[in-house]
Amino acid sequence: MSEAASTRVALAKSTTTRKTPRRSPSGTTGTTALLLSLAPLLHEWLPRQRWFAGKGRPVTGFSLVAVTEILPLNAAAAGPGLLHLLVRAHQRSRPAQTHGDCYQLLLGVRTTLPPHLAAARIGQVADGPLAGRTLYEGLHDPRVADLLLERFRHAGSLGPLRFERAAPIEPGLTPRVLDTEQSNSSLVYGDAFILKIFRRVFPGTNPDLELPLALAREGCGRVPAPVAWFEAATPEALTLGVLQPFLHGARDGWQLALAALAAGRDFLPEAHALGRATAEVHTALAAALPTPALLHSQTRTLVTGMVERLETTAQAVPALAPYVPGLRTAFDAVTALGHQGRGWAAQRVHGDLHLGQTLCGEDGFWSLIDFEGEPSKTLPERRSPQPPVRDVAGMLRSFDYAARSHRPWSPDWAARCRAAYCEGYEAASGTDPRGEPELLRALETDKAVYEVLYEARHRPDWLPVPMAAIQRLATAAV
Question: Which has the least CB within 10 A, 305, 328, 344, 420?
Answer without folding.
Answer: 305
